[in-house]
Amino acid sequence: MNDHVQRSLRHKLIVQSIEKSGALRVEALADLTGVSAVTIRRDLTELAARGALRRTSGGAARTFKEGQPVPFGLRFAEDREVKLRLAAAVSGLIADYESVIIDNGTTCYAVALELAGRPLTVLPLSLHAAVALGSTPGARVIVPGGPVDTDTLALNGSQAVDAVRSMRADVLVLGTCSASATRGLTSTLYEDALIKQESLRSAGRRILVTIADKMNRTSNFRFGSPADITHVVTTRDARPEMLALFRDEGCEVTLV
């Protein structure tokens, strides 16, 4: 069998496997196809250029139509191990018996999983995080009211904003849609930006936790700046100039 046929069959197997599972890492695809990780990365680059899949950090994921939101479960599966490492680092910055606001999003959900069972008072801004914390004895979980977003289970209504305003938390664990040097911390949704802004005002320590590629983007609605953050927890591939923006404001930076 010539190389072109082999590559064609391998590409077909890669795409079918990712469509079925949602997301796979390079190592899993190398085991599946029997080729090297270098070859898989080359395959993924070619397939992504054709729109057959989406590259992720360390692997690839199923494609979606433009404008179609990626389901929460699939977004959490992407870079799951990285998000869990970030969550472990965030947990180390939070002491027992402190009060915590946990933002919505998949990385913050990983933080909720890591904090489950610890003696904390927590106001989670998504039902995913609330269930993760409330399913294990230990934390006192306060769930704000208001409408719940389908799939993300985020709480972004006025009742959630009021709940945040009424709390004086020791710590905020903040996720972000994007961060940039020119526009600061931004979100794709106005309602999400509003509750993030109020959360920043309600917490003593403010931990931004995000994978590095989100620190190279910008979105429509600004809710803060590097000066509003006291701690940044991100991945080691973060651009030095972006980290400098936070360090210049006195932020403590943790890389995992």
Layout of SSEs?
Elements: H1 3-21, E1 23-25, H2 26-33, H3 37-49, E2 54-56, E3 59-61, H4 72-77, H5 80-91, E4 99-102, H6 106-115, E5 121-124, H7 127-134, E6 140-141, H8 158-165, E7 169-174, E8 178-180, E9 184-187, H9 190-201, E10 203-209, E11 221-224, E12 231-234, H10 240-247, E13 252-255
Parallel strand pairs: 4-5, 4-7, 5-6, 7-10, 10-12, 12-13
Antiparallel strand pairs: 1-3, 2-3, 8-9, 9-11
Helix pairs in contact: 2-3, 5-6, 6-7, 8-9
Could you please describe the fold and organization of this structure?
This protein is α/β, with parallel strands linked by helices. The protein is built from 10 helices and 13 strands. Strand 5 (121-124), helix 7 and strand 6 (140-141) form a beta-alpha-beta unit. Helix 2 (26-33) packs across helix 3 (37-49), helix 6 (106-115) packs parallel to helix 7 (127-134) and helix 8 (158-165) packs parallel to helix 9. It starts with a helix and ends with a strand. The mean pLDDT is 90.
